């Protein structure tokens, strides 16, 4: 019975099992401790990383829905006309015109019914009253607004003409049309007019119809143009002489004579892309560009004619031309001098005018060259 009692299950369990159980529990304890220790070691690292990559909630910049409109407003404010920043955008009217308004009637209906117009602006002296009357009478009042620049200061003596009351009269003694144009034909003031005729006063218009002229200009896509000159006119460049065939020409080829500077492959003014300065006609866009180029102090604008092609809204060889179908006679009467009281017929007056003209030409060309040199972003399309 002794051996049997030694092999009892209780003894087997107490003699062998306790060490195995102890080892098992030790392993479990050690493993758990390792896991706990590892967890405790990793936990602070995770907190540190989290704190580095994501700041506390109180410091996170909120995504404001108003931030985007704010940027849009800043952009729109940059596009505002200077001086209008204190006003709501919709109330700003940054353009005007020379149309006269009735004291009665409904203004909105008046504007809605207004036909498209062009502008005729002429420097005038009372001694050329008859010629100017004939000239302006050719331009129908429902299609053209008339503006007279009185260089002799005489205004009231024009009141008897039938169209005088619908004309805009501006007076300044002994000033040129370019002086007037720079100050009174700002692009925002003439933005509603399709074309701007900036003509001299000594023009005879027996062979000219302005409505037919504009039809040709629109059809040909001319941005800067002039009616051709009758061969009896005072002519400075052969390009402007009326061609015997066709309604428009854009260039002149040398044929005979030594005085002509044009030849078959000439690509620039005064052989092509050029008009003379006594009867130019500008589209709205071309005038906006040309006005910026007119110098405030250079009243004769010599040199400007050779640069007008830059304002042709494209290739000057195509968009600048002479309209032969409608032509005028340029009389070439000297008008400025003696304070506007009389035509400048004396040799002293004419010499002073011509001397200043040549001086202005040199000044303008120097300014152009300096501007080209200084503007690194500008590329000359006609090098």
From TrEMBL:
Biased composition (Low complexity): 55-67
Keyword tags: Membrane, Transmembrane, Transmembrane helix
Keyword Transmembrane helix: yes
Transmembrane segments: 20-37
Superkingdom of this protein's organism: Eukaryota
Span list, region Disordered: 48-67
Protein name: Lysine ketoglutarate reductase trans-splicing related 1
Organism classification: Eukaryota, Viridiplantae, Streptophyta, Embryophyta, Tracheophyta
């Amino acid at each position: 019975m002794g051996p049997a009692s030694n092999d009892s299950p209780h003894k087997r369990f107490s003699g062998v099992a306790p060490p195995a159980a102890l080892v098992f529990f030790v392993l479990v304890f050690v493993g758990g401790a390792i896991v706990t220790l590892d967890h405790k070691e990793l936990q602070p690292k995770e907190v540190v990383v989290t704190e580095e990559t994501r700041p506390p909630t109180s410091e996170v910049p909120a995504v404001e829905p108003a931030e985007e409109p704010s940027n849009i407003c800043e952009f729109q404010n940059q596009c505002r006309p200077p001086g209008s920043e204190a006003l709501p955008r919709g109330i700003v009217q940054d353009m005007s015109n020379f149309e006269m308004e009735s004291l009665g009637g409904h203004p909105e209906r008046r504007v809605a019914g207004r036909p498209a117009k062009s502008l005729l602006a002429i420097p005038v002296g009372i001694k050329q009253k008859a010629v100017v009357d004939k000239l302006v009478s050719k331009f129908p009042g429902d299609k053209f607004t008339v503006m007279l620049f009185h260089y002799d200061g005489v205004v009231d003596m024009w009141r008897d003409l039938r169209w005088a009351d619908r004309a805009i009269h501006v007076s300044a003694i002994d000033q040129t049309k370019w002086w007037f144009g720079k100050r009174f034909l700002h692009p925002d003031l003439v933005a509603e007019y399709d074309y701007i005729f900036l003509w001299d006063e000594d023009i005879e218009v027996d062979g000219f119809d302005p409505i037919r002229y504009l039809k040709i200009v629109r059809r040909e896509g001319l941005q800067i143009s002039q009616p051709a000159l009758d061969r009896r006119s005072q002519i400075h460049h052969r390009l402007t002489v009326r061609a015997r065939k066709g309604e428009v020409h854009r260039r002149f080829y040398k044929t005979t004579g030594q005085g002509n500077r044009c030849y078959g492959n000439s690509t620039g003014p005064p052989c092509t892309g050029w008009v003379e300065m006594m009867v130019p006609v500008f589209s709205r866009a071309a005038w906006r560009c040309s006005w910026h180029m007119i110098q405030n102090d250079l009243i004769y604008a010599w040199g400007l004619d050779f640069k007008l092609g830059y304002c042709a809204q494209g290739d000057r060889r195509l968009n600048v031309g002479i309209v032969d179908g409608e032509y005028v006679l340029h009389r070439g009467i000297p008008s400025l001098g003696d304070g506007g009281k009389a035509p400048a017929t004396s040799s002293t007056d004419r010499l002073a005018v011509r001397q200043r003209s040549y001086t202005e030409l040199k000044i303008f060309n120097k300014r152009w060259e300096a501007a080209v040199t200084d503007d690194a972003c500008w590329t000359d399309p006609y090098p």
